[in-house]
Structure formats: structure tokens, C-alpha cells
Design a protein that fits this description.
Length: about 150
């Protein structure tokens, strides 16, 4: 949504538009997000009606995003970390070709994930990027995250 918003706007308006769009996706609940969308409509609706239509048409799909914790939202908004991890997974799978069992494939992906923090000591880079999000994921999805019960 954010990326598409800026595709529909002139580059000279990006800084001001960024300040007006952020309250929508950073809102604590749906009512606050709706109020921020109304403000966006008031200030940008005449100049960029396509942006307002974009947000309005996708509103039903956007609302569940607001139910997540702030840490999870950061991971979802900025896909850089996810894309980086997926690239590492693709590289590892491509290098090995095929796997004899599903367990072998899962082990390979596990080892790739562990290589992000090879010492296991939670270095600053690893901690800053993933530890808050991992804690939020473990809390939010405890029923689907078996390791969360052992921590």
C-alpha cells in the first residue's frame, strides 16, 4: 500500500505525503487509522484521488494489519529483512539441488537461519533486527509456535 501510494504521487510531494500517510499504518486501532485516512483525504483528495481510492478499496484487507503488535508491524512494513532471509534460503536450496527427505530440507533451512547469528549469543545486529519481532511472534502465535512454550 505504501509503495503504491508513492507510485501515484509526484516525487516533489513525497516528503509531505509520507508525513500524512504514516499515521494511517502506524495507528493503534481502526478508528485512529480511519481518522488519519480522513485527514489524508482532506489534504490530498483533490490532488491525488487515485491514492484515496487505493486506500479506500483496500481498507478491508488493511484492517487486520492493525491487530498485530508494533514489532510485527515493523517486520511486515519493511520487507527488507524478510527478503534478505528468503534470498539466503533460495541460494542454499539452489546450491544443493534436491533433498532426499523433507527433514533434510528443513534442516538446511534451519542451518541457514542459524547462520544469521552463528555464535548464538544474540549479537547487536541480530538483536536489533529480530529479537523484538521474535518475542512478539512467539506471544501472538503461541499456539502455532511450539518453541514459545519452552522459553
Amino acid at each position: 500500500m505504501i509503495r503504491n501510494t508513492f507510485r501515484l504521487a509526484s516525487r516533489r510531494d513525497w516528503d509531505r505525503l509520507k508525513r500524512d500517510v504514516k499515521p494511517i499504518y502506524a495507528a493503534p486501532n481502526e478508528a485512529a487509522a480511519r481518522a488519519a485516512l480522513d485527514d489524508l483525504t482532506d489534504s490530498w483528495g483533490a490532488r491525488y484521488p487515485a491514492i484515496i481510492r487505493l486506500w479506500t478499496n483496500a481498507w478491508a484487507e488493511f484492517i487486520p494489519f492493525l491487530d498485530y503488535d508494533v514489532e510485527i508491524r515493523k517486520i511486515l512494513c519493511s520487507t527488507n529483512a524478510i527478503e534478505s532471509l528468503n534470498a539466503r534460503y533460495r541460494r542454499a536450496v539452489k546450491a544443493r539441488g534436491h533433498f532426499p527427505t523433507e527433514q533434510a530440507a528443513m534442516k538446511c533451512l534451519y542451518l541457514v537461519t542459524r547462520s544469521l547469528d552463528p555464535t548464538g549469543k544474540g549479537q547487536a545486529r541480530w538483536t536489533m533486527r529480530w529479537k523484538p519481532a521474535l518475542n512478539a511472534f512467539a506471544t501472538t502465535f503461541a499456539d502455532r509456535w511450539p518453541a514459545a512454550e519452552t522459553y
